[in-house]
Amino acid sequence: MVELEVKDGIAWLTLNRPEVLNALDLEGVRVLGKYLDQLGDRDDVRVVVTRGTGRAFCAGSDLKDLAPLSPEQAEAAEIEHGEACAKLERLPQPTLAMMHGHVIGGGVGLSLYHDFRVASRSALFQMPEVELGWTPPWGMGRLVDVVGGANARWLTMGCVRLEAARAKELGLVHEVVEDDEFDNWIGEFVTRLAGFPSEALRRTKQLLNEMTPLRDQKWEVAAAEAFRHCYGTEEARDRLEAFMTRKRG
Description:
This protein has helices at about 25-40, 65, 70-90, 105-110, 130, 140-145, 150-160, 165-170, 180-195, 200-210, 215-230, 235-249, and strands spanning about 1-5, 10-15, 45-50, 55-60, 95-100, 100-105, 115-120, 125, 160-165, 175. The protein is of the alpha/beta class. The strands form two sheets. The protein has a six-stranded mixed sheet with strand order 1-2-3-5-7-10, with helices on both faces. The mean pLDDT is about 95.
């Protein structure tokens, strides 16, 4: 579900469920969290990259995993998702989300915990949670920090689908790279990062995180509580069932 390879000071975390566009179920989230715990203690890792196999970076939380759950169980599962992703931010090493194809819902959320977000030209972004009947259950503070309040409203309440160039205009993406140059560009960039003095990188990341009040844990708690409330409504359950029926069809 999630694979880890370390080579030349760079850790490559690969989401490997291409049949479901690398949607994250709870088992995969726990594997991701375990790997991130290990990486934080490794002096031989200087940069961490997250990527996806197949046609997508990540299509968010696996709704097949969530559908049978009560609102309380779904909230607990999403809290685990958020806590695992937050470990990326707490890593001392710089992190990069290497995004291609579909970057949907929790896939956008996952990217927000990285220091750098780079997309291929053909990547597509969307946060469809409100349309489905609930709130984004984590990462909201980071979204506002990254793109600002007005753009966060556009993304979350409008549920708009964005091409990579537009995502860059909004600040969601740092760089857009042509598809046929994507792998080489990422390789060169992270190799360059890995060559920087590690203590300077780590201290700079630590300072920047401490200067960002919107990343306070209270916003994670508030987002999870709002998700539980909305997920339990009849309208949300109806929309989830309709979505699952379409997927099965």
